[in-house]
Amino acid sequence: DIQMTQSPSTLSASVGGRVTITCRASQSFTRWLAWYQQKPGKAPKLLIYQASELESGVPSRFSGSGSGTEFTLTISSLQPDDFATYYCLQYNSDSWTFGQGTKVEIK
Amino acid sequence: QVQLVQSGAEVKKPGASVKVSCKASGYTFTDYYIHWVRQAPGQGLEWMGRVHPNTGGTRSAQKFQGRLTMTWDTSISTVYMEVSRLTSDDTAVYFCARGKWQQLVLAYWGQGTLLTVSS
Fold first, then answer.
1. What is the C-alpha to C-alpha distance for residues A3 and B116, in angstroms, rounded to an integer?
2. For B79-111, b where at least 16 C-beta lie within 10 A, e where not — what string?
3. Which of B3, B45, B96, B113 is the mutation pick for testing A, counting most A CBs within 10 A?
4. Most exposed of A26, A74, A94, B115 (fewest Cβ within 10 Å)?
């Protein structure tokens, strides 16, 4: 199975700041990676798929990049609604795996 | 609109089994895989497996193989997930989810079902 190592596990940032979250894969693959946002008590919300495709309705301050073994989610200007936990998901292999999650807190 | 509605919270004893349902609406039930994802209290998301209600194809994560059974009833557009030999480590919220149109990635989610395993 492909293991996904997500970092950092927690980060503190200010409103308006730039945030970068990374997922590293144990095996190389091209683009079957997604990013989700989750708030307490809610189901995850899809932000990015195929590594860099923005889901419909998601603000353009969210972007994704990467291929191979390193993938990145960037929030260009953090907004109050963005404080949440973020997960990557690889769906390249037959057995899918999530990263461990990154909690974005208010600085 | 696509909706996935799950059954209610469950409390089970260690060693028992639990069966959670996920009723789909708003699309052709047999066209998409249904996946199961769980989240233990304060922990991250864990992909468990998937089932296709048309082909019958299933795949489970290695740690659940032999303990996870996914079935479906096309007549009522419902998928079921059964986990056997429960332990306290199975205490979690269980989500069903479906892929996006023409994409594999999970875009539609049920509301979650809390399973508590306690003696």
1. 28
2. bbbebeebeeebbbbbbbbbbbeebbbbbbbbe
3. B45
4. A94
Distances (CA, A) of A68 to A18, A28, A53: 24, 4, 16
Q: Taking a contact as any Cβ pair under 8 Å apart, which residues of chain A between 42 and 71 contact chain B?
A: 43-44, 46, 49-50, 55
Per-residue model confidence as pLDDT tens digits over A75-95 = 999 999 999 999 999 999 899
Cβ of A91 within 8 Å of Cβ of B107? The answer is: no
- Could you tell me whether strands A85-90 and A97-98 are parallel, antiparallel, or unpaired per DSSP bridges? antiparallel
A55's tokens: 């889901």
Burial of A67 (0-12, 13-18, 19+ CB in 10 A): middle
Nearest by CB to B107, which of A46, A95, A100? A46
Which residues in chain B are contacts of A50 at CB distance < 8 A? 103, 105
**pLDDT, tens digit, 9 for 90 and up, residues A12-35:** 999 999 999 999 999 999 899 999
> Contact, B100 vs B107, CB < 8 A?
yes
